[in-house]
Amino acid sequence: MKVIVDNKIPFIKEAIEKIADEVVYAPGKDLTPSLVKDADALIIRTRTHCNRGLLEGSKVKFIATATIGFDHIDTEYCREAGITWTNAPGCNSASVAQYLHSSLILLQKSKGINLSEATIGIIGVGNVGSKVAKVAQELGMRVLLNDLPREDKEGKQNFSSLQTLAKECNVLTFHVPLYKEGKYRTYHLADTAFFQSLKQKPVIINTSRGEVIETDALLNALETKLISDAIIDVWENEPAINLTLLKKVFLGTPHIAGYSADGKANATRMSLDALCRYFNIQADYQIIPPAPSQPQITAKTLSDAYLQIYDPRQDSNALKTHPELFEKLRGDYPLRREKKAYTILNHSE
Question: Which residues are marked as active site?
């Protein structure tokens, strides 16, 4: 069996080489029809667009994307071609929740937002949004949930409309998949009309997909004070992002909210498990991220401890200083562990 693997997928080399007869590693954006032609399977990330142009005439029968999102896979073509695909839902949900947790703490410390008196609207309440809701509740925030597909399935009682969120929320955070068409369309969900509907001049946070927010509308909302600030991890036209927007946002990061080592290990494990199930392979492998260099954190407060564990200002400063390195900052992202990897000492909260 021959497998093509995105060379930025971590913790995979030792395991995949126990599973496959031949493994070829390549940058995700550089996969070509000639490269994949005689491969049985691909393990990719979002930078590889799996469509007819790449796959037609190849031997590929299985694709695993080590990501939650799968809008880079032409699922209709795969169905027609008999190619099975899988993603890794929920793999990095705790990582994104960590990013939101630290970002909310920074909004309180740096922007004077009293979280215990603030209302957060969570747009998209799947694996990620559900964990973000728990984080917000632990910080003392009032939480409103918006998720039209879940509302249609479960009823309206636990959900609020976008109009209600626009009226009542001090923070709005997006955790939706990208749907370009249909009833649940999320492409440019936040457009000019959306921003003009906002009543509380909220902080906008986007860690879902860049295309969920219309860039020009967001920039105008910042410039005209329809919103008070923004925290943006995902951008339209990545990696050629809008530099004016980058300069204006409170935090601007290179699509790394879900990039904890724990989340990456989960995604790699889920991809390999799916590969083995599809090809009916028995293999013994472990995917364990390295321990942090300083596993003990000493801090006076839990908030300070959480920022010692992960402070998104470092990622934001790196991108704002060198926006031309977007892909490198993302591809060579340093080890970042979640709270469970640490022991916190001497906190008073």
Answer: 209, 238, 255
- Residue among 264, 280, 276 nearest 15 (CA): 276
Quick: pLDDT tens for 63-94: 999 998 898 999 999 999 999 999 999 999 99
Residue count of the chain, please give it.
349
pTM score, whole prediction: 0.89
Q: What is the pLDDT of residues 194-248, one digit of tens each?
A: 999 999 999 999 999 999 999 999 999 999 999 999 999 999 999 999 999 999 9
296-331 in b/e form (b: 16+ CB < 10 A) is ebebeebbbbbbebbebbebbebbbeebeebbebbb
Whose CA is closest to 18, among 318, 284, 293? Answer: 284
Name the β-bridge partners of 142: 119
**Matching residue, tokens 């004077």:** 112
Q: At what angle do helices 93-111 and 312-321 cross, to 10 degrees?
A: 80
CB atoms within 10 A of CB 7: 14
Nearest to 293 by CA among 335, 246, 237: 335
Report the b/e string of 42-75 with b at 16+ CB within 10 A.
Answer: bbbbbbbbbeeebbeebebbbbbbbbbbbbbbbe
Treating both helix axes as pointing N-terminal to C-terminal, what angle do 302-309 and 93-111 enclose, rounded to 10 degrees? 120
